């Protein structure tokens, strides 16, 4: 950061919660702020917070938040003198740091050279070995498959194949046996090339049941380096952090001091400036460097909560060319802090990302609670960016108090309109093993059924909404209501002269069979022995008001085949309508269309039209919110036609392919 100097106007090259978070501190420090935004973000919170805002392009990140030229132009136009990249997007892009420097802008972060070095996990490991840090045994050399195979055999299985340029848990494969290596390397290389534009891989011994502990470091342009304690990020799903805390759970004081010293040595070896994080995995035997992140970390608030420091302020001071505000012995920590990442995703549907309008947003408040977010009620969650809705951070005098506050705050947080992982987080944070700190990085995956299956049950109002959705759907499609079933006496006309009709729905693992009664005085719904009057009025194709007994509510509905998506004031609900008469036709029809389960971009087409495929064969890869979803063959059969191409942005429910099940 040779350009370090006092500046007065800062451009924040990011969006969402982190853009808002950075602007708050910048304002406190008397800086003017410039936001950048894409088409879909024009009404976002981060624009409202900024003094000025510049449109930099259309929604897809590659056309806006990843456009180096557009961001540099925005800085020039507004007279910004410095750029804060936040995390994600261009924060670890060495070309961006260089472009800022070339344009005479202060880049709030380390030099392009340091970013480039640490951006390669292989190069970073080589440097750390030279600085005397323990690293995971492994191989980071020649990419020739013969060399890789020999190295893997030498390291011993299981082996982890990692993308050298990787991040966000992508491009990793566990290999259990020698003969699985070649395929895993090929697929990791494909993913790495597509995601990072670089297909280099390295190999590491797969450490069984490790914990992830990382150390926050800071360097300035005067050669000072300090560490700000560690964070535990062991609760992960698919190598991605879900919950983070500071300090680490049950760490011996000697190990703690050793890790901090190792991290400082590493930062010193890299002549590091600004905020950085040295990540380690640990087991009983020791701790091992895995990578360095050259930016502000998502979970930096837990460090702030125990140290009382503002890390963004420190970043800006270092960028001004000032010395670090505190010496190592002046940095102290008290209490314990925990952060939970609240995502727009549905844990009961395999963590499928969720999009839509936020209809309700009620935040918990109270002592020891911090919420970092870029969303408000009325905002829309789009498929273009990361699904992070908010970070909920709680602090306590000790871990059990912080945990208690977390569980309570999660229960009070109300978000409706999109699915969220709130209930999942509450179960996770209430888990007795989490309370005892008996966790490793595989904990969530092992406990997944306990954390998701105890899932929600549908309320009578939800089923009333589902029934109304079916009635309106039939009306709009001019489908005559199903005829009475000859084999099911509860359907159809009864001798008493009142007409009844049973509708069946599947919700998660449960089946519900409400009965609609058409009487002289109107419609009623019977469920679980109670009967209540049901009234409704359609507002438009996708919305209606209903009243069950005397409980009114407004509901939005989206159909995709027989999948029914309801948004009620209580949340988002995905049901399947089981139509007994459409069953045969329906199943073939369902099997003959491959539809997008969510909005996203088609990134790969993996099957040949006409080729015979086994059930489960991968057909199409869809990417949304940085997650990849593979759509598979629903049965043995073949794709007769693809209705999409690589690069297409598709809506939820869009038909992507026609599929012909094989004749049995
Ligand atoms: P950390 O190592 O800081 O914990 P992670 O690797 O878990 O961070 O997540 C950082 C990731 O956050 C980025 O790689 C990117 O996928 C995602 N991301 C980028 N920008 C944003 C944003 N504005 N809001 C939420 N997530 C983002
Ligand atoms: P990313 O750049 O995607 O963050 P990391 O190298 O930091 O990749 O690893 C992410 C996570 O993957 C770690 O936090 C840990 O849970 C797991 N992991 C990484 N390396 C190993 C390993 N050698 N053995 C077991 N787990 C590992
Ligand atoms: Mg990492």
Characterize the structure shown.
- The chain is α+β, with helices and mostly antiparallel strands and 664 residues long.
- The protein folds into 5 domains: 9-108, Rossmann fold, CATH 3.40.50.20; 137-205, 2-Layer Sandwich (Dna Ligase, domain 1); 211-451, ATP-grasp fold, B domain (D-amino Acid Aminotransferase, Chain A, domain 1, 2-Layer Sandwich); 460-577, Glycoprotein, Type 4 Pilin; 587-661, OB fold (Dihydrolipoamide Acetyltransferase, E2P) (Beta Barrel).
- Helix content is 28%, strand content 33%.
- Strands 24-25-28-29-30-31-32-33-34-26-27 form an 11-stranded antiparallel sheet, covered by helices on one side. Strands 14-13-10-11-12-15-22-20 form an 8-stranded antiparallel sheet. The chain has a 5-stranded parallel sheet with strand order 3-2-1-4-5.
- Helix 1 links the parallel strand 1 and strand 2.
- Helix 4 (94-102) runs antiparallel to helix 5 and helix 12 (399-412) packs antiparallel against helix 13.
- The structure holds adenosine-5'-diphosphate (2 copies) and magnesium ion.
């Amino acid at each position: 950061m040779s350009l370090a100097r006092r500046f007065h106007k800062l451009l924040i090259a990011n969006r969402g919660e982190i853009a808002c978070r950075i602007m708050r501190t910048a304002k406190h420090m008397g800086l003017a702020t410039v936001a950048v935004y894409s088409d879909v973000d024009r009404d976002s919170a981060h624009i409202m917070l900024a003094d000025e805002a510049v449109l930099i392009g259309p929604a897809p990140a590659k056309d806006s938040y990843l456009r180096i030229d557009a961001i540099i132009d925005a800085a020039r136009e507004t007279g910004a003198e410095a750029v804060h990249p936040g995390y994600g997007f261009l924060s670890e892009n060495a070309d961006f740091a260089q472009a800022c420097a070339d344009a005479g802008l202060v880049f709030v972060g380390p030099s392009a050279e340091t970013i480039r070095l640490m951006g390669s996990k292989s190069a970073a490991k080589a440097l750390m070995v030279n600085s005397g840090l323990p690293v995971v045994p492994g191989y980071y050399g020649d990419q020739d498959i013969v060399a890789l195979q020999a190295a893997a055999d030498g390291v011993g299985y299981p082996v982890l194949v990692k993308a050298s340029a990787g991040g966000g848990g992508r491009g990793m494969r566990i290999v259990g046996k020698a003969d699985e290596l070649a395929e895993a390397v090929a697929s990791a290389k494909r993913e790495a090339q597509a995601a990072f534009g670089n297909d280099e891989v390295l190999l590491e011994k797969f450490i069984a049941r490790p914990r992830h502990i990382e150390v926050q470091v800071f360097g300035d342009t005067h050669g000072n380096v300090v560490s700000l304690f560690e964070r535990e990020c062991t609760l992960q799903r698919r190598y991605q952090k879900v919950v983070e805390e500071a300090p680490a759970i049950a760490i011996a004081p000697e190990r703690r001091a050793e890790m901090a010293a190792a991290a400082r040595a590493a930062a010193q070896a890299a002549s590091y400036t600004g905020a950085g994080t040295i990540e380690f995995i640990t087991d009983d035997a020791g701790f091992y460097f895995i990578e360095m992140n050259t930016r502000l970390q998502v979970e930096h608030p837990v460090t702030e909560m125990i140290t009382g420091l503002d890390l963004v302020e420190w970043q800006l001071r270092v960028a001004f060319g000032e010395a670090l505000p505190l010496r190592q012995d002046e940095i102290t920590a008290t209490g314990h802090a925990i952060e939970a990442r609240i995502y727009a995703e549905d844990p009961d549907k395999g963590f499928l990302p969720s999009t839509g309008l936020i209809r309700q947003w009620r935040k918990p408040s109270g002592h020891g609670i911090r919420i970092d977010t870029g969303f408000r009620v009325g905002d829309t969650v789009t498929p273009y960016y990361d699904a992070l809705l908010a970070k909920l951070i709680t602090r306590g005098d000790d871990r059990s108090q912080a945990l208690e506050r977390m569980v309570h705050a999660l229960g009070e947080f109300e978000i409706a309109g999109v699915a969220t992982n709130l209930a999942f987080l509450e179960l996770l944070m209430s888990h007795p093993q989490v309370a005892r700190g008996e966790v490793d990085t595989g904990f969530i995956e092992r406990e997944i059924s306990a954390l998701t299956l105890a899932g929600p049950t549908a309320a009578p109002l939800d089923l009333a909404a589902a029934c109304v959705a079916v009635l309106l759907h039939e009306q709009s499609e001019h489908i005559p209501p199903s005829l009475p079933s000859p084999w099911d006496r509860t359907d159809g006309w009864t001798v008493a002269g009142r007409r009844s009709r049973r509708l069946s729905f599947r919700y998660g693992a449960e089946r519900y069979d409400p009965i609609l009664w058409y009487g002289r005085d109107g419609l009623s719904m019977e469920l679980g022995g109670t009967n209540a009057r049901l009234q409704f009025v359609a507002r438009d194709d996708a919305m209606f008001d209903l009243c069950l007994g005397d409980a009114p509510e407004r509901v939005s509905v989206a159909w995709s085949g027989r999948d029914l998506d309801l948004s009620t004031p209580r949340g988002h609900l995905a049901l399947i309508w089981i139509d007994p008469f459409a069953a045969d036709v329906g199943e073939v029809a369902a099997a003959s269309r491959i539809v997008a389960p969510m909005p996203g971009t088609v990134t790969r087409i993996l099957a040949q039209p006409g080729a015979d495929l086994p059930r489960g064969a991968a057909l199409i890869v869809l990417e949304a919110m940085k997650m990849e979803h593979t759509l598979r063959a629903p049965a043995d059969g073949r794709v007769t036609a693809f209705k999409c191409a690589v690069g297409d942005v598709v809506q939820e429910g869009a038909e992507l392919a026609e599929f012909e099940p094989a004749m049995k």
